[in-house]
Amino acid sequence: MSEFNFELTKEIELLRLVTVGSVDDGKSTLIGRLLVDTKGAFEDQLMAVRKKKGLTHVSSAAEIDLAMLTDGLSAEREQGITIDVAYRYFATPKRKFIMADCPGHEQYTRNMVTGSSTANAAIILVDARHGVLPQTKRHTHILGLLGMPHLIVAINKMDLADYDEATFERIKADMKDYCAKQGVKDLICIPMSALTGDMVTVRGDKMDWYKGDTLLETLESMSVLDDLDQKAFRMPVQLVNRPQTADLPDYRGFMGTIASGTVKVGDALMAVPSGKTSTVKDIVTFDGKLEEAFALQSITLTLNDEIDVSRGDMLIHDGEAIETKKMLTANMCWIGDEALENRNKYIIKHASSELKVMVDHIDYKTDIHTLNHESSDRLEMNDIGQVTFKLQQPLIFDTYADNRTTGSFIVIDSFTNNTVGAGMIV
Amino acid sequence: MSQHKLTQLKALEAESIHIIREVVAQFRNPVMLYSVGKDSSVLVHLARKAFYPAPLPFSLLHVDTGYKFKEMYKFRDDFCEEIGADLIVRSNEDAIAKGMNPKEFGVARCCGALKTKGLLDALEEGGYDAAFGGARRDEERSRAKERVFSMRDEFGQWDPKNQRPELWSLYNGRIHDGESVRVFPISNWTEMDIWSYIRDEAIPIVPLYFAKERPMIERGNMLIPYYEANKDQLLEGEKPTMVMSRFRTLGCSPCTGAVRSDATNMDEIVIEAAASRRSERETRIIDHGSNSMEDKKKEGYF
Please, what CATH class does the domain formed by A229-317 belong to? Predict the structure, then answer.
């Protein structure tokens, strides 16, 4: 215990993950393996879901009923199904992980889209005996739409496929071929057995032919920010801080989370859509002023001129060519009970702004089985398609491929207030 | 490739600040639940960071059961005064006047009256449309499925099967009159993150979290704190002994157990948390009925 390294805890980064797969592909076992081997689940929690009541100690994923650990709601345990996305947490000395566990059957589109929207990497499970199934392709297609930066294909159950290299290579080639068409940026294939643990957290001695990293090594070393700090500066203004107290009578701070890029003291900024410009006076935080701030930091900016900026505006670097638009086309995942139809009106929430929109037309609906585009006048729950909206007021946005924060939006039903759609701008 | 690096605690901090600011932007009358525990200490610290240099734009609400440890009351009052927070304290006075206690009425009834009803009444009285809480998803399995913005109907109740999907960092806070939202900005923090952050940021916490010799009743695996008002807790044949111990979580004194520990400072607590193989909720009696947390949450408990 004395060797605990406090400096190390200040070095580790956060990786957000999503696991997708269908029933029986070993997803629960894989999650159990990761949680047990990294000590991400506590002993009293594991003991409560052990398979044999006589066990006094739980040492492997095979000894626990993982579904019982992950199915948190009584309705799930009663019906024996997983209804909702669950979030799991584990850490290694190198990194902390937040894993969204998406149920593989009912409403998988809705759950997958939700769990994947914040993830930097997805783990998709393939059973080595069955290879790439139509379901694998559907999941990969959705992950491609969601712009998943890293896709890890866990070719699982290698223990039931004689740890055969040719089997692994064949599935890997199939996935590479398919992913090339789906806009997947980074594909990594790893052979493993979640049951025995080989190539999950340890190498084992059965697959010496595989020279790549284990799953855990891969997760520990992949880029977290990617190139988010290298992109154009975007800061949606969440709030304007005007304390108007005795010591801060004229203070006006613009608060927000930097969606991409960096900002420095003295930078010339423009507020859009107003087009008003000024320069950065201070980058204010509770811990002191910064010279520079970068993507994903939550900060407050003060400017050298009094310009009108409010919630819903976006701060960008002055001189960048960007135009406001009154139409918007997006890949949509529909998650509402009531279908999206032509001329329906909704509210969309994009960055820090909310505005009214109308469906101008549905470009196409994607057949989730064949992935062919077909014409349609509606999108039902769990449907995917491309939709063009007419906007009530002009909006500044990026494409989702360029920027996941300023290129995404949710659709809200103004009658029920429910979130009914997820949009990725093309 | 990126040239900047956001450490994991700073990434969690930025996410929490974003959520706290979003609530102030979207709601008319938010309030922050303050339970005096370590998670509350972190939550308040994050809120101060979110609005710096301005003061907190909402009040802190402590729903007091009257059963908190005396060290908690002293800490609460000192801490709120030091940071200049507006503290509101509310209790279910009726139930307290009738002598509600866990021993005679049972833990479930006592919690229902003093915590859940106390909370719902206080929220209604204040007319709050959003209430921040310090619950974390790693604490308990029904909490693992709760949203950051968790909708409550007019009765303050949670419907786990009908939750809004939460995508990207876009939080839908639109509600109808009478409805409200419970917001959990530290959903993605683990117990280890909380202790590490308290250490790194030197956040003040109740001294009960640090180990010292305390009078305890040793019952099975449980360490039950012993003090004057708690005398009738002693069962036949039991007597209090001094045990080097501390609390991993703090609730009501009759229902919160301690753990054996020598951790007297933050470094030692972090090391102990890193090595711990048992969950912190193990010392909270409330969690151990069948399905109890989910049921209580449906009724309006945090």
Answer: mainly beta
